[in-house]
Design brief:
Number of domains: 3
Low-confidence stretches: none
Distance between the termini: 54 Å
Number of strands: 22
Strand order of the largest sheet: 13-12-9-10-11-14-21-19
Mean pLDDT: 95
Number of helices: 14
CATH architecture of the largest domain: 2-Layer Sandwich
CATH class of the largest domain: Alpha Beta
Largest sheet: 8 strands, antiparallel
CATH superfamily of the largest domain: ATP-grasp fold, B domain
Shape: globular
Length: 447
């Protein structure tokens, strides 16, 4: 086991890693930017090192500064968290060249699954269903039109290096496709430095279901069943739950088996997520792999009882996972609400600023994962996540009831948050009846 780990991240996930390390008897070095100087969670690390100014590009994304901090801190490994450098294969390669452990998959596996177009080819090799579409990147608008006519409109243009809904456009006809191509390509280039676009058949009103996987360096890959992330807005997840409601057990098993098969084909170990969309006939299609821990990982932890952060660290240290697939069974139902510093009544405008008072909810089956405290200032430079509220109960109905109660107990004063939106969703009849797809929130807000 490592003696000392550097956390190349901030906020909630940095605190989560600190806690896991403490329970494993591992010391931690936290990095921070000037915007995060004085953040309370930094006091829980054994050492904290400033790596730059407020802008992420001058701090958390500076590989040279992160490595320098690791050398100063005398660590044996780096945990990248999620976001920032977590899926940067070059960063993982630099860690290896500096003889620093990377708590995640190998650079080679990350490259195989990180590019969405390459991951689709890998999925086909592993016999995992993919959405009908182009075999590779689209060269020009004319090729896009030709393929769209072959697979049928509507179609979805997607950035091969994309994420968070950027570089994605839906087109219902030839004219719309030409405009969508230009917009998606330009947005992809601006966001990711890669204008590569591929095309898929657009699946209308799908559910977004993902499989949590966990592998070790001894060839073992396990699945921790699924999470349903269909409650989202503009491709940004708002509420996640497990198990996925309305998913037949036979389909659930096939998806889980497909995810494990894909991971083994890629030579993947550590924690990761294989994401699928499910159409209205329960056909499922691979969309991408997230080669890191996910924001919503607590949902899987609650229903399986497996600490994913500790498992990640043990795997990176070379330990064999002491698990049997047959013993990993979901128990009860878990729901997570992402509490963001945004104003739902003002088109989700970011609301950074000082939190005058925060009171976390509690009680049976309630978990609050947050780095924010009374007096904490939410910076304007990073994502707006304040915390994650997770509940776990024997049934989905009870989980919804507990979540409503916990949301009403939660107090975050001084800034606007998405709590009112979550309460609105949870009060909606369609959500109670699990009639939710990826466009549900937009329809609810419009109606």
């Amino acid at each position: 086991m490592f003696k000392r780990i550097l956390i190349a991240n901030r906020g909630e996930i940095a605190l989560r890693v600190i806690r896991a390390c403490r329970e494993l008897g591992v010391e931690t070095v936290a990095i921070y930017s000037e915007a995060d100087r004085g953040a309370p969670y930094l006091e829980l690390a054994d050492e904290a090192i400033c790596v730059g100014t407020a802008k992420a590009s001058d701090s958390y994304l500076r590989i040279d500064r992160v490595i320098s901090a690791a050398e100063i801190g005398n660590v044996q490994a780096i945990h990248p968290g999620y976001g920032f450098l977590s899926e940067n294969s070059h960063f993982a390669e630099v860690c290896r060249s500096c003889d620093i452990g990377f708590i995640g998959p190998t650079p080679e596996a990350m490259q195989r699954v990180g590019d969405k177009n390459s991951a689709r080819a890998l999925a086909r090799e592993a016999g995992v269903p993919t959405v009908p579409g182009s075999d590779g990147l689209i060269a020009n608008e004319q090729e896009a039109v030709r393929i769209a006519k072959e697979i049928g409109f509507p179609v979805l243009l997607k950035a091969t290096a994309g994420g968070g809904g950027k570089g994605m456009r839906v087109a219902a006809n030839d004219l719309a496709l030409a405009s969508a191509w230009q917009q998606a390509s330009a947005e992809a280039q601006a966001a990711f430095g890669n204008a590569g676009i591929y095309i898929e058949k657009y699946i209308e009103r799908p559910r977004h279901v993902e499989i949590q996987i966990l592998g070790d360096q001894h060839g073992n890959v396990f699945h921790l069943w699924e999470r349903d992330c269909s409650t989202q807005r503009r491709h940004q997840k708002l509420i996640e739950e497990s198990p996925s409601p309305r998913l037949p057990q036979a389909i659930r098993q096939k998806m889980a088996d497909a995810a494990v098969r894909l991971a083994k084909t890629a030579g993947y170990y550590s924690a990761g997520t294989v994401e699928f969309i499910v159409d209205q006939q329960d056909n499922f299609y691979f969309i991408e792999v997230n080669a890191r821990i996910q924001v919503e990982h607590p949902v899987s932890e609650m229903v399986t009882g497996i600490d994913l952060l500790k498992a990640q660290i043990r795997v990176a240290a070379g330990e064999k996972l002491d698990l049997k697939q047959a013993d990993i069974k979901p128990r009860g139902h878990a729901i997570e609400c992402r509490i963001n510093a945004e104003d739902p009544d003002a088109n989700f405008r970011p609301c950074p600023g000082r939190i005058d008072r925060i009171i976390a909810p509690g009680g049976f089956g309630v978990r609050w994962d947050s780095h924010a405290t009374t007096g904490y200032v939410v910076p304007s430079y990073y994502d707006s996540l304040v915390g994650k509220l997770i509940v776990h109960q024997p049934t989905r109905k009870e989980a919804i009831e507990t979540m409503i109660r916990a949301l009403k107990e939660l107090r975050v004063e001084g800034i606007k948050t998405t709590v009112p939106l979550h309460l609105k969703v949870l009060a909606n009849t369609a959500f109670h009846e699990a009639q939710v797809d990826t466009t549900f929130v937009e329809r609810m807000l419009a109606g």
